[in-house]
Write a structure and sequence with these properties.
18 strands; 14 helices; 3 domains; about 20% strand; globular
Amino acid sequence: MVKNAKKINIITLGCSKNLTDSEQFAFQLSNAGYKVVHNSDKTDFQIAFINTCGFINDAKEESINTIIELVNLKKQRDKYKNKKIKLEKIIVFGCLVQRYEKELKAEIPEVDFYVGNYNAEQLLQIVELKQDKRTAYNRIPDSAGHYAYLKIAEGCNRNCSFCAIPLIKGKYVSRKVVDILEEARILTKTGVKELILIAQDLCFYGYDFEKEFLLPELVNSLCEIDGIEWIRLQYLYPFLFPEKLLDVIADNPKVCKYIDIPLQHISDKVLKKMNRACTKQEIVDLLDRIRTKIPDATIRTTMLVGHPGEGKKEFNELMEFVKEQRFDRLGVFTYSQEEGTKAAVDYKDIISSAVKEKRAEILMNEQSKISNELNANKVGKIFKVIIDSKDTDFYIGRTEYDSVEVDNEVIVNCDEKLEIGEYYDVKINGFDDFDLYGEKI
C-alpha cells in the first residue's frame, strides 16, 4: 500500500472505450491506496491523469484545452503559491498522444509524462506501482454503477477513408471469450445489470483469430450469466453483418431490441469515396431484414455529411433516405479531414464548414419531426424503465430502446422513492422531440 497516499483525478475524454480504461485504471490506483476521483472540478488533487481523444477536430481541441487548463492550474500553484491548488504532476495519455506525441511535447512541455494508447502497466510505473493482474477487470465506475461498458476488441480492419482509428489503434484484435465472460461476471457482482458491448466494430468480433464472426455466440454466452438483465450492442457495422445475430436479438429477452448501425451515407458515390464496402441496395436490404426479423427493433444510426463527393444531389438522396426509413435514433456529424487518412490523401476538402453545418442542421430538423411523431405513438403505452438518476423532483430513466447519454430519456414523476439502478413499469403520458414523460404504475 502507498504511504501518505495522494489524491488522483482521472479526467476521461472521448468515447466509452476510453471510459472503460479509466475505470479499470482507477481501481488499480485505489487498490494500492491512492484516493481516486473521476473528472473532478475541484483543486484538491495532487496528480492528474488525462485520458485523451484524437478522433476528430472537436475532440482534439477539447483534449488540448483540457491539458492547457491543468497546466495553467499547476502554474498558479507554483507561481502564486496558492495553497488551495495541490496539483503537482500531470500525465497525459490516450489517442491524442498516440497520434501527436512529438508535437505535444514540443508545444506543451509542462506536462510531466506523455504515454500513447492505454497501457496500465506503463502508467502505473509513473506512480511507482505494478499492475495487479488478479484485479485487472475490476473498476471504480464513473457512474451509478448499474450499467457498464464491456469492451470486446481493440482496433479496426474496415479502413473507412475518413477514419483515423486504424492509424491510432491498429488492426482489429478480439479479446478472448473467457476473459470477456470473466469480466462480465465481475461486473455483475458489483451490481451491474446492463452490459453495453462496445468495440470499433462489434460485427467483426472473432474473425481475426477464428476466421469466423463469433458475436452471436459471445452474446448467447453472456446471456447465461446471472444478474444481467439487459445486453446492449453498440456499433454494428453494416458490411458482412452476421445474420445469426438477428436471431439472437429476436429470440433472447435479455438482448435489447436495439440496433446501433452507423451507416454514414446512402449515396453509392459517397459510400465508395468513404470506402464503406457496401452499396445503397445492400443497406436497404439489411434494414428490411432487421425489421422483418425484429419488428419492434429500435434502429439507431449516424450520418456523416460534407464528405468529399457529396454534392447537392447526394445530400438530397441522403435526406430522402432518412425520410423514408424514419430511423428511431439518428446522429449527424460533419466531415473532418484527418491527417493520414485515405480521404485526406486522395481528396480535397472543398465543402465549406458553413455548408456542412447547414446540411447537418437540415437532417437533424427532419429527424426531430420523425422522433416527435414516433414518440407520440408511445403515449398510453407501458415500458420497462431502468432508473439512471434523480433530479430535484423527478427521476430520469431509459427503456431498452435507449442507450446511455446518446438517446431518449424517460422523465418519471413519482411521489414515492425509486431506487437508482432498479427497473419499474412506467406508463407514458407525455413526450417531446427526444424525451418521454411518464409515471410509475
